[in-house]
Specification:
Elements (H helix, E strand, L loop, with lengths): L2 H13 L4 H8 L3 H15 L4 H10 L8
Helix pairs in contact: 1-3, 1-4, 2-3
C-alpha cells in the first residue's frame, strides 16, 4: 500500500469507529504505527481530538454519518 494512501485508510477506519488496535490488526501494522499516523494527521490538519478527525472525514466525504 503506498504511503500516502495509508493515512487515508487509517483515517477512514478510525472514523468508522475502529479502535487503534483494530485498525492495526486490519492493516497488518503495529499499534504504534497507527498512533503515529493518527498523530501526524491531527498535526497536519490542526485537529485536536479523534472526534475532530471523524468530523473531518464526514465533511470531506471519506465516510458518511449513520442516521
Amino acid at each position: 500500500m503506498p504511503y500516502h494512501w495509508l493515512g487515508r485508510e487509517i483515517l477512514q477506519l478510525i472514523a468508522e469507529g475502529h479502535t487503534t488496535k483494530g485498525v492495526a490488526s486490519k492493516l497488518g501494522l503495529s499499534v504504534k504505527t497507527v498512533e503515529t499516523h493518527r498523530m501526524q494527521l491531527m498535526e497536519r490538519l490542526d485537529i485536536h481530538d479523534v472526534a475532530g478527525l471523524v468530523r473531518y472525514a464526514i465533511r470531506t466525504g471519506l465516510v458518511t454519518p449513520d442516521r
